[in-house]
Each structure stands twice: as structure tokens, then as C-alpha cells.
């Protein structure tokens, strides 16, 4: 996929992921699939911090769609945040001293989000910023 095509799909992905971060984490964490997203036993304070973090990040991802080339730092932050978080959870699950095998769903989704955003982020942003480019 070339950079112009990636640039066309990236805003849609960012909006979708942003909306999921704002409205989807809570139901996934506490209502629909607690063993995969929530903590066992539940640590309400910790879960509220995670919900707040994802909601704020979701708002900023949606705002970044207006001019994603100016917000590449935020986009790469989102990629690395999800990679580091998922890898940490994966290592803790493998080690299993923490009893957090319930993180498997969270690990998968975080890797998926990081992979989708990474794949759709154009590699040659200067090409997209030239006047008359289709990548706006």
C-alpha cells in the first residue's frame, strides 16, 4: 500500500480507535468480558486511571484526524504505548507470578491497534504535505 492510500485510511482508523478508547474500554473492562480486560480481583482505582487514560487518548486521536501529519508524535506515542503495555502484560502473563492470565484479550487488542496504526501511518510524510497532493 502506498503512502497516499495509507493517508486516506489513517483518519478513519484513528477515529474508530479513538471512539473505542472513549466508549469501548469501560464495557470491555467491566461489563462484557471482565476476565479479559478487568483486574481480578477488581482494583477500582486502577481501572478508573486506565479508563481516564484511554478516554483522553481517544479524544486526542479523534482531534489528530484533522491534520495527522502535524500529530505524528501522538500517533507514534499511541503505537508505542500499546506495544509496551501489551508486551509488559504478555511477559507478566507468561511469568504468571501475578496471576494475570486474564489479560490475554487486552494483549491481543493492544497489539492489533498498534499494528493497524503503524501500517496505516505514511512513511514519507513530506510527500503528503506538498501542495496539490491527494493525501490531505
**SSE class:** mainly alpha
Termini separation (Å)?
A: 17 Å
The coarse silhouette is: globular
Please state the CA-atom Rg, rounded to the nearest Å.
17 Å
Number of domain units:
1
Helix/strand order, N-terminal first: HHHHHH
Number of helices: 6
Can you give the helix content as a percent range?
Answer: over 70%
Give a count of the beta strands, DSSP E runs of length 2 or more: 0
Share of residues in strands: under 5%
Mean pLDDT figure: 82
Ranges where pLDDT stays below 50 over 5 or more residues in a row are 130-136
Q: Biggest sheet, open or closed, and with what strands and sense?
A: none
Descriptive overview:
It contains six helices and no strands. It has 136 residues and is mostly helical. It has one domain (3-125). The chain is globular. Residues 130-136 have low confidence and may be disordered.
